[in-house]
């Protein structure tokens, strides 16, 4: 079923199709043969969605729009300094086929006019003509997500009639702006302009540029992310030739046009729009495509200087250690410590994209909280992106805070997640991340809590296997405890062992004597299955004991996080003992109820925090 964008494009196509001005380019004979009524529109987003209308699947030659992609290829192969030696980045103010050159710097003005495009064509990688042709074709295929075909008729037509381009090339050779034989360079330039694309192809190619060089449909890299801003900048300032200033004023998006009737406009970080309609104006721009781009920009407010995020929303909420706790099950003594020390842990839930303005606001508040707390957790679970400014500022902030102790902690930051670039930058800047970066808020909170508890209990809560102090056995007399010990089975298991498996019938429960274990399960996420910890159990704590209440299969896995020592209790043995000493079962059930109430309280606090 069509959505709002599809409906809008259909209406837009019907609207611009009625425009009758202009005519197909005639200076290239093959272009003059194209049906002037053709009109196609496509929008491709950075997450791979494509919306189309009209003659979106009609092939046309890419022409000058190819200049943007060849320029990116030249930058990636040779680097900025070398490319800038050969072609500048200044708007010329002249038509696309002007013979004017920058004689002061001995180079064409920019890569979007013919002279500059001829200069960058010379920079296409390859040891010989055939290799350069193959590399050109492979480059186009990466951007489009499929192999593009050469329109032989148009290629030969351009080659036979491109005398003005020949004049430009020979003049550039005489001025030392190119080195190879002009006819060889021109042959490659005529080829790059003669590959067939559809509006859909072109939209995907543009979306690849604004997706940091990764094709959003195939997921394959087409251009190093470092050079995408270079290409987009030149497209904005020079892509529409001597109409570029008016275009930037009215539409305000990087764009490139071609005399075959195509215009590619990109919305940085979001999408690309491609329109094809052959009738062009005196500047060489498609009249219908110009009208469509203006309409799209107006309708959705896409002008670069009218769209901006609000840095004031970067902080979703603030909590302290009394309002949110880790999933580690704690003893009553530990809970008392954490309640008193709770304000010494502060958590900032961060959201949306991080950039200069939002990080500035975030760090101003973070600095205030860090002055009041021992540990400040920045929870990045709802952050979608961190740009170069954000990465630099966050690393510098952490470095400053580290001088007064390991105060700042990043949660929900993984090496292979959406914030991988931030993780890599912190690793490069800070070195050891073991005390600074955690893959979940739960583990970050547990780390902070453990350190606060260790101040009061340096050796930990449970150092001896004194079952009388265990929560499950609270209130039982010495004789009752002796009876329970008599039916207990001592067990030792290494780290990583699955102690209880989800779905299996519960025939016994366990008490941890030493070590720790996590209660966890696999849950579906947008990126696939992920193991989620529901709670972490330590010495004196039990699992599987709810089977005493109603039996049934286990509802989660329990995995040893370290080497563990356990006491295993058969349910049948406990029931047999309870028949002789019923007060034992009553006390166990009462203690289990209290433990479940405590876990429910923790879960409720977690849910409240998630809903904020």
Please write out the topology.
Blueprint: H1 4-16, H2 29-32, E1 40-45, E2 50-54, E3 60-61, H3 66-78, H4 80-86, H5 114-121, H6 129-144, H7 152-161, H8 163-174, H9 182-193, E4 196-197, H10 199-210, H11 228-238, H12 244-250, E5 255-257, E6 262-267, E7 271-276, H13 287-300, E8 315-320, H14 332-341, E9 345-351, H15 356-372, E10 375-382, H16 388-402, E11 408-411, H17 420-430, H18 441-456, H19 478-487, E12 489-493, E13 498-500, E14 508-514, E15 517-525, E16 528-537, E17 542-543, H20 547-550, E18 557-560, E19 564-570, H21 571-580, H22 582-611
Parallel strand pairs: 9-10, 10-11
Antiparallel strand pairs: 1-2, 1-7, 3-4, 5-6, 6-7, 8-9, 12-19, 13-18, 14-17, 14-19, 15-16, 15-18
Q: What portion of residues belong to β-strands?
A: 15-25%
* Helix segment tally: 22
Multimer state? single chain
Distance between the termini: 34 Å
Counted up, domains total 3
What is the CATH first-level class name of the largest domain? Answer: Alpha Beta
Widest sheet, order of strands: 2-1-7-6-5
As a whole number of angstroms, the C-alpha radius of gyration is 33 Å
Q: Which spans have pLDDT < 50 for at least 5 consecutive residues? A: none
What general form does the structure show?
elongated
**Helical coverage, percent range:** 40-55%
What's the total count of β strands?
19
CATH architecture of the largest domain: 3-Layer(aba) Sandwich
Task: Give a quick set of tags describing it.
single chain; 612 residues; alpha+beta; Beta-lactamase; Transcription Regulator spoIIAA; Jelly Rolls; 3 domains; 4-stranded mixed beta sheet; 22 helices; 19 strands; 43% helix
């Amino acid at each position: 079923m069509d959505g709002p964008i599809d409906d809008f494009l259909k209406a837009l196509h019907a609207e611009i199709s009625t425009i009758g001005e202009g005519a197909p380019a005639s200076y290239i004979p093959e272009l003059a043969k194209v049906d002037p009524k053709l009109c196609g529109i496509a929008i491709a987003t950075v997450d791979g969605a494509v919306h189309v209308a009209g003659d979106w699947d009609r092939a046309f030659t890419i022409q000058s729009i190819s200049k943007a992609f060849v320029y990116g290829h030249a930058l990636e192969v040779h680097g900025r300094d070398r490319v800038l030696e050969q072609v500048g980045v200044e708007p010329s103010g002249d038509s696309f086929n002007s013979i004017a050159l920058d004689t002061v710097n001995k180079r064409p003005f920019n890569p979007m006019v013919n002279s500059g495009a001829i200069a960058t064509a010379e920079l296409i990688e390859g040891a010989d003509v055939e290799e350069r042709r193959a590399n050109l074709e492979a480059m186009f295929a990466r951007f489009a997500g499929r192999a593009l075909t050469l329109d032989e008729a148009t290629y030969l037509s351009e080659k036979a009639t491109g005398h003005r381009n020949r004049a430009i090339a020979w003049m550039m050779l005489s001025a030392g702006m190119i080195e190879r034989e002009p006819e060889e360079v021109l042959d490659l330039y005529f080829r790059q302009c003669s590959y067939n694309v559809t509006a859909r192809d072109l939209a995907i190619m543009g979306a690849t540029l604004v997706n940091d060089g990764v094709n959003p449909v195939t997921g394959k890299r087409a251009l190093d992310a470092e050079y995408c801003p270079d290409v987009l900048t030149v497209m904005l300032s020079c892509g529409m030739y001597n109409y570029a200033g008016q275009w930037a004023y009215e539409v305000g998006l990087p764009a490139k046009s071609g005399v075959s009737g195509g215009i590619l406009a990109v919305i940085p970080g979001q999408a690309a729009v491609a329109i094809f309609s052959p009738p062009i104006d005196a500047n060489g721009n498609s009249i219908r495509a110009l009208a469509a781009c203006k309409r799209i920009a107006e309708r959705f407010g896409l002008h670069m200087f009218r769209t901006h995020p609000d840095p004031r929303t970067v902080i979703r909420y603030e909590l302290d250690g009394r309002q949110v706790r880790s999933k580690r099950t704690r003893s009553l003594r530990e809970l008392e410590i954490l309640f008193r020390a709770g304000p010494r842990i502060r958590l900032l839930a961060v959201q949306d994209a991080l950039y200069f303005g939002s990080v500035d606001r975030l760090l101003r508040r973070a600095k205030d909280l860090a002055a009041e707390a021992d540990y400040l957790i920045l929870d990045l679970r709802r952050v979608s992106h961190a740009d170069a400014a954000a990465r630099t500022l966050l690393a510098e902030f952490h470095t400053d805070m580290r001088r007064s102790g390991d105060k700042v902690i990043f949660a929900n930051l993984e090496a292979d997640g959406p914030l991988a670039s931030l993780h890599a930058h912190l690793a490069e800047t800070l070195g050891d991340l073991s005390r600074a970066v955690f893959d979940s808020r739960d583990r970050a909170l547990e780390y902070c809590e453990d350190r606060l508890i260790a101040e009061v209990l340096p050796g930990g809560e449970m150092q001896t296997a004194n079952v009388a102090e265990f929560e499950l056995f609270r209130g039982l007399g010495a004789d009752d405890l002796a009876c329970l010990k008599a039916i207990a089975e001592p067990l030792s298991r290494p780290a990583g062992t699955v102690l209880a498996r989800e779905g299996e019938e519960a025939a016994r429960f366990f008490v941890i004597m030493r070590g720790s274990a996590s209660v966890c399960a696999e849950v579906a996420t947008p990126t696939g299955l992920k193991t989620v910890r529901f709670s972490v159990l330590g010495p004196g704590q039990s699992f599987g004991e709810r089977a005493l209440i109603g039996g049934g299969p286990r509802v989660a896995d329990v995995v040893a996080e370290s080497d563990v020592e356990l006491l295993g209790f058969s349910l049948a043995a406990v029931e047999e003992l309870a028949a002789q000493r019923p007060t034992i079962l009553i006390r166990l059930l009462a203690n289990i109820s209290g433990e479940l109430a405590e876990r429910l309280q923790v879960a409720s606090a977690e849910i409240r925090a998630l809903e904020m």
